[in-house]
Amino acid sequence: MTEKSPVNWAQIEAKPAFQALLGRKARFIISSTLFFVAYYFALPVLVGYFPDLMKKEVLGRLNLAYLFALSQFFMAWALAWIYTRKAAQWDKEAAEVVQGH
Amino acid sequence: MTIAVWMFLAFVVATLGITIWAAKKNTSAGAYFAAGRSITGWQNGLAVAGDYMSAASFLGISGMIAFFGYDGFMYSVGWLVAYLTVLIVVAEPLRNAGKYTMADLLAYRLTPRPVRAMASLSTITVSTFYMVAQMIGAGTLVKLLLQDLPWISTEAAIIGVGVLMVVYVVFGGMLATTWVQIIKAILLMTGTIFLSVLVMKNFDFSFGKFFDAIANLTYTDAKTKAEVTRNFLEPGMKFGAEVTKGWGPLDLISLGLALVFGTAGLPHILVRFYTVPDAKTARVSVVWAMVIIGTFYILTTFLGFGAATILKPHNIPTDNMAAPQLAATLGGPVFFAFISAVAFATILAVVAGLTISASASFAHDFYTNVLHHGKEHRPGEEVRVARITAFVVGAVSIFLAIKLQNVNVAFLVGLAFAVAASANLPVIVLSIFWKKFSTTGAVAGLAVGLLSSIVLIMLSPSIMGIDPADLPAAKRHLIQADAIFPLTNPGILSIPLGFLAAIVGSLLKREPEAEAKFTELKVRAHTGLGAEKATAH
User: Are B487 and B418 in contact (CB under 8 A)?
Assistant: First the structure.
């Protein structure tokens, strides 16, 4: 699928700026993925194995189980927002790295 | 009830109009398969949402909450969280390195023919499973919603849905499919928001009153026929350890794994990211999709708990009827008709997306690249093959859906997600992030992920079980014997197997050329250099 292109990929890859960008990206992707996977699976684990704790009512009739499930939506939106801001910065750095290629 | 038919016909006329408009723009393969890569961020966000929120989400989850309270709501959470995987891990590298299909990303640095053949098999398997489930759903819905119009049979509904989806895809390509999905997403959100407001109006717009009613729900239990009062906000009514012989919590975790890792491997979702101009727009579109999908699933609180408190579970005939019946009670016959028409529009948008991703994969991956070594013999051949494939896919799906309409196929959607998570996702992730990933690894990962999902589902309580003799055929287990694998969702075992096979395969047979080409893929995936450009209109 790849057309022959004059781009010198190895030269770009070797640039310190590209390596630094990749390192930052990898750290963010790995840590945020670990975070949301842990946060999400805490829900079925807590609800499944500690139901009595999760049935505790904390806000009117709303219990921990419902509030924790609801919080997942806001966690997802917040993380998406943080990612978008980080990614906008990476876009700029990537544009600098490939400038002239 | 004829109002519902008229509303649905209005939707059909509007979408056929769009198909005619789109057909005029389909002048090249890029236009046909990827809508000229000219879809904007918010448009693609709506289309992703429209592609994703099936009738199972809309009717199924509302019903699950109406009958099982909190457990139904918890079930809905994973459908949004899954988009974090799409956003953070998959969407942008895929857009930067691919062209029309998921396999483009894999073939970038691996030996194209074996990888594309396996990826195409996996794509077509996932799409077909999902599609047959959706089309049988359409047939069932017709029976439920149009009871006073007996001249519309289940078969007629299945054939109607099948023919329409083929027309959209064959003539309108990706552009028409996209707009069908956008309109459906808008209709679905309008209906859901309006129904939620009606529910809250019923409780004088007081959350206190609403949640009090949910926490003290008195109704007639279906099994014991006794009047009971339950707190529907408490977990455990469906997945609790007592209800499920101890396997419920683990099964729910396994389902969560399939959702969180499977969504980013669903071919019909992945191809949507080729329809936008660049990776940045792909990112924006995932965020839009997350806003819409998240709002929708939060609103299932009002739909599901609203149905439970206002209608009472014993007055709802089946789970799929909870939302439509709530609409009838609160909004009258016209709103019921609107919600019914939305349910059909929902199915149509999803099956159109599945059809185009399956036919793109067959034409682009299998026909052009596997059979013809990446060369088109005549200009326009690839698009022509895709159109013929869409026609065949439509015919096969109609046939299967009619044949299987009285068979218990509830496992098909779960199977589609399990295959996507166990076969597709491991190879996508390893191909982007792991230098030593090789062709052998990709083929092994795809094959093991696909096979282990199918075999484990065959051995699971979804297919195996002993039923009482008087159970209707549509609810009977396909194999009358005790289940060998205890979970209905195989993800917890099949996803690690898929990853393991891909890693072991890569280590057993190294591929220096693929490792050398990783440099190129890395630069391309992370900078967008050399990515497919939008075609000017």
Answer: no
Supply the CATH number for residue B72's domain.
Answer: 1.10.4160.10
Number of domains present in the structure of chain A: 1
Cα–Cα distance measured from residue B522 to residue A10, given in angstroms and rounded to the nearest whole number:
10
For the stretch B351-397, pLDDT in tens is 988 998 999 888 888 888 888 887 777 778 888 889 999 999 999 99
Q: The tokens of B157 are what?
A: 């509904």
Residue B439 lies in a domain: no
Mean pLDDT on B491-513: 94
Where would I find the H helices in B361-410? 381-403
C-beta of residue B46 within 8 angstroms of C-beta of residue B287: no
In a domain, B445, yes or no: no
**Does residue B379 sit within a domain?**
yes
CB contact under 8 A, B239 and A48: yes
On whether residue B414 sits in a domain, the answer given is: no
B241 interaction partners in chain A (CB closer than 8 Å): 48, 51
Per-residue pLDDT tens over the stretch A1-21? 445 557 888 888 888 889 999
Contact assignment for A72 to B81 by CB distance below 8 Å: yes
ipTM of the complex: 0.91
A82 CB near a chain B CB, below 8 Å?
Answer: no
| Number of domains chain B contains | 1
Query: Domain range for residue B98?
Result: 2-405
Strands (E), B221-283: 227-230
Residue A63's domain comprises 15-96
